[in-house]
Amino acid sequence: MRKPGRRTITLVAIAVLALGGGAGLWLAGRMPGVPAPTFGAMAATDTTAAGDDATDTKAKDKPKGRKGKDKDKEEPKPVPVELARASARGIEAYYRAASVIEADRLVDLVARVQGRVRQVAVEEGSWVESGKVLAELENDRERIQLEKAELTVADKARLLERSRSMLEQELISQQEFDAVESTWRMAVAERDLAAIALEDTRLRAPFAGMVTDRRIVAGQQVAAGFSAFSLGDFEPLRVRVHLPEDVARKVAAGQRVLVSPEGRELAIEGTVERIAPVVDPATSTVRLTLLLANAGPELRVGGFVKVRITTDQHHDALAVPKLALVEEGALRSVFVAEADTVRKVEIETGLYDETHVEVLSGPRGRRLRGDDGAGWPAHGRPDPRPQRRGCRLRGQDRGCRRLAAGGTADLARAE
């Protein structure tokens, strides 16, 4: 067998070394923490590449760091605000209630006797005067009985006159004359009963008003006590509300109130007509009757209304817009405009209405006046980000604008 030559052995050795080095590099890349073996020029090349990668990483990280520092140094953008002024004004506290409108009088007219309806003279919505016949039942029998009774009265009246003449001539005794007079009186009573029976077949309006409901038609058979019509007197209208006892103590008879129909932007003035002298033990409320003297066609009987009753009033109270108030639990605060920023200030509040709230005192119980330079925000508050204590008030170019030029204290609003 021929022995391998030196050249062949050298080539095999180089191949083995190359395979071993490649396997080592492969393992170093697959297993973190294992240093890659150095193989002369190859190791130097890899190290240089790694160094270039590190340099690139640092180069990439460096701009990011500068950008972050530059961002931190940026000033917060101003928030546009709107200014208003705190002012001295009258402010009222009020209590709201809901009720329905009632007529001064609203009654049901019922049939007094049984019978068939002969005619109906009115319709719903008809205005009738007192005494007008609204409907009539068949009454032929009652009319005949009344005519008979009237004839009897006339006959007894003639007999009474003859008896009086005979008594003056002493042709009859006083006892005989009294018997004739008694007979006449009984005939008159019978006639009156017949007239009442005939009148009971007619339904008349007991007072002037409007027919609100008609429940009968001609030809209908009705029983005694059947409710045929509803009649209402709508001048004036009334509203009854029930207030808590502590609120009712603050209301007086004759006081002005405002009544608004449901779903309409309308306020109608009324007065407190009377206050119940007792408290309802079931609800612990007091009933108030409100009078609406000139209600107009806007209010209808039975309609739902909202009532506003004033319970307290302060004149010349320092007031700020209600939307400027910031409520955080039991704390109340506003933002005061100072130079080109606003500052949050805790306040104590008093009465309030739909648009304004009374300011009783400011920081540390200090009494505020309208001319002390304090300012209150009309709406909202500045950006609450922690890096800024207030929003800057620039000019029109920054979106800031004045809501009011005169008055007392400025109010700032963040838009």
Q: How would you describe this protein?
A:
The structure is a single chain. A hairpin with a 2-residue loop joins β13 and β14. With 415 residues, the protein is of the alpha+beta class. It has helices at residues 6-30, 41-73, 140-168, 174-199, 245-248, and strands at 81-110, 115-120, 127-128, 133-137, 202-204, 209-214, 221-222, 227-244, 256-261, 268-275, 285-292, 304-321, 326-328, 331-338, 341-352, 356-361, 401-402, 409-414. Strands 1-8-11-10-9-12 form a six-stranded antiparallel beta barrel. α3 packs antiparallel against α4 (174-199). The chain has four domains: 6-72, no CATH class; 81-90 and 315-414, conserved putative lor/sdh protein from methanococcus maripaludis s2 fold (Beta Barrel), CATH 2.40.420.20; 94-99 and 231-313, Elongation Factor Tu (Ef-tu), domain 3 (Beta Barrel), CATH 2.40.30.170; 110-229, OB fold (Dihydrolipoamide Acetyltransferase, E2P) (Beta Barrel). The protein is built from five helices and 18 strands.
Report a brief summary of the structure:
The protein has 415 residues and is α+β, with helices and mostly antiparallel strands. The chain has four domains: 6-72, no CATH class; 81-90 and 315-414, conserved putative lor/sdh protein from methanococcus maripaludis s2 fold, CATH 2.40.420; 94-99 and 231-313, Efflux pump adaptor protein, beta barrel domain (Elongation Factor Tu (Ef-tu), domain 3); 110-229, RNA polymerase II/Efflux pump adaptor protein, barrel-sandwich hybrid domain (OB fold (Dihydrolipoamide Acetyltransferase, E2P)), CATH 2.40.50.100.
